[in-house]
Design goal:
mainly alpha
């Protein structure tokens, strides 16, 4: 018997609210911490370790996502959800008590281990309690959480830091998480796990080594130097060992049904591309606004927030569109919007308005919302209950991996172009991003640097456009069918 069959229909709304609260808690974490980081650095020091506050969180989150997905299929969603949220909340409390940057990084790693459960399990729980036709609409509600978090996060973070201690930005998660757990404890029925089912520990170890080595190589490529090759080699070796082990294992970490389904593979490939394309705007549009046009961080954040507004709106629309057209049509329309938005990045000029940048971000957000929701819903509808958790987790993991790959690839393109165009300049990007350093540059030097940096960023946008074009081909692999009622 599935959880859907055991569930009183009138309780589904409370479960959805609980899942939205948990997802909001994880979504707001990134933006609210980013807002408070200057204050944290001023108090704790350790600016050289700044990047690791975010990288370690992403790393432990990404590594744990597939494991939570598999364990949720074996032991039940409810138990794993409580474990993950408890780890996240304990990590949040400890982060607020950190007295050095090193301790903050350590507690952020712990927090990321819990965060790895939240996104895949909330989405899986919602898929369990709603029919295939309803999932398309409800996943849009879950996506809307990210748009709200993108707006509330920076504003609430700035207000809390100004009026209270920076520790409070971590502690605000606690009441939200506890209330979410309370709702699920009351309304979500527990499901007995498979008798005799055990986690594939050898496969899990190889997966963790592979993912950790690959993400460290991608996230810390600039700092590693020649050690980058060692980490890539370790990731390749662990990946090969994982493949060999999975082929022989009685209970593989990734069930064979995943590899045999063109639809599931397409859904994962699509989210990998979406994650990579997303970094073209998330990481480099604010750089353009502040560095090339001389805009303020608030203007850059406002333009980028338009992507987070377009995403949930398109996600909700795609739910309705799937019901009257097909998975393929909806995914292809989203892919065309994503391509159009990426092409609009190439039209940005030094005198472009913030409104133009915001419109570009909005179009890209609509494309991402429409494609990502279609890929996710199609995979969840295709997978049966016993593998739905790992299938959903694989979608989330693919997007995270794509973001790391996109950041590394586009960062390398930018650095290569800057080295070719401004070989004598010492960190020109940092100098034009800093208001004080920018003012100290002569008008001629500033004009030359901004022109060359703009040209370098345009090549980054070209890479983003090429990656976005792959989404159209992946969308073609989607079936020409609609979500059907159970």
């Amino acid at each position: 018997m599935t959880e859907t069959a055991e569930l009183n229909t009138e309780h589904r709304h409370w479960i959805l609210i609980a899942c939205m609260l948990a997802m909001f808690m994880a979504a707001i974490e990134v933006t609210i911490v980013a807002t408070a980081m200057p204050t944290i650095i001023a108090e704790l020091g350790g600016f050289s370790q700044f990047g690791w506050v975010f990288s370690i969180y992403l790393l432990t989150q990404a590594v744990s996502v597939p494991l939570y997905g598999r364990l949720a299929d074996m032991w039940g969603r409810k138990r794993l959800f409580f474990i993950g949220v408890s780890l996240f909340l304990i990590g949040s409390v400890l982060c607020g008590f950190a007295h050095t940057m090193t301790w903050l990084i350590l507690f952020r790693a712990f927090q990321g281990l819990g965060a790895g459960a939240i996104m895949p399990l909330t989405s899986t729980i919602v898929a369990d309690i709603y029919s295939p036709r309803e999932r398309a609409h409800v996943q849009g509600w879950l996506s809307s959480v990210w748009g709200v978090a993108a707006i509330i996060g920076p504003l609430s973070g700035a207000w809390l830091v100004q009026h209270f201690s920076w520790s409070v930005i971590f502690w605000v998660n606690v009441p939200i998480g506890l209330f979410s757990m309370l709702l699920l404890a009351r309304f979500l029925p527990a499901r007995e796990h498979h008798k005799g089912a055990t986690l594939n520990l050898t496969g899990s170890c190889w997966l963790m080594i592979c993912v950790t080595a690959l993400l460290v190589a991608l996230l810390q490529a600039d700092a590693l130097g020649y050690w980058l090759l060692a980490f890539l080699l370790l990731a390749l070796l662990a990946g090969w060992q994982l493949k060999q082990h999975e082929q022989r294992a009685e209970a593989p970490l990734f069930p064979l049904a995943i590899w045999r389904s063109r639809l599931i593979l397409a859904g994962n490939a699509g989210n990998l591309i979406i994650g990579a394309t997303m970094m073209g705007i998330s990481a480099f549009l604010p750089t353009w606004i502040q560095g090339i046009t001389g805009g303020t961080p608030l203007q850059a954040g406002s333009a980028l927030a338009m992507m987070s507004i377009g995403w949930p709106l398109a996600s909700t629309l795609s739910g309705r569109l799937m019901l009257v057209t097909s998975y393929r049509f909806t995914a292809q329309l989203g892919a065309l919007l994503l391509i159009a938005g990426s092409a609009l990045l190439l039209l940005l000029r030094a005198d472009s308005s913030i409104m133009q940048a915001g419109l570009t971000a909005f179009v890209i957000g609509t494309g991402m919302g429409m494609t990502s929701t279609t890929f996710l819903v199609s995979v969840q509808n295709h997978a049966n209950y016993d593998i739905r958790g790992i299938c959903t987790a694989s979608i989330m993991f693919s997007r995270m991996l794509g973001s790391a790959i996109g950041t590394a690839l586009m960062g390398a393109v930018l650095n290569f172009n800057l080295a070719q165009r401004l070989p004598q300049a010492s960190d020109p990007m940092q100098q034009i991003m800093s208001h004080e350093s920018r003012q100290s540059l002569s008008e001629a030097t500033l004009h030359q640097w901004t022109g060359q940096i703009a040209a370098s960023l345009h090549w980054v946008f070209v890479v983003a456009l090429v990656i976005a074009m792959l989404t159209l081909w992946i969308a073609w692999l989607m079936p020409r069918q609609r979500p059907e009622a159970e």
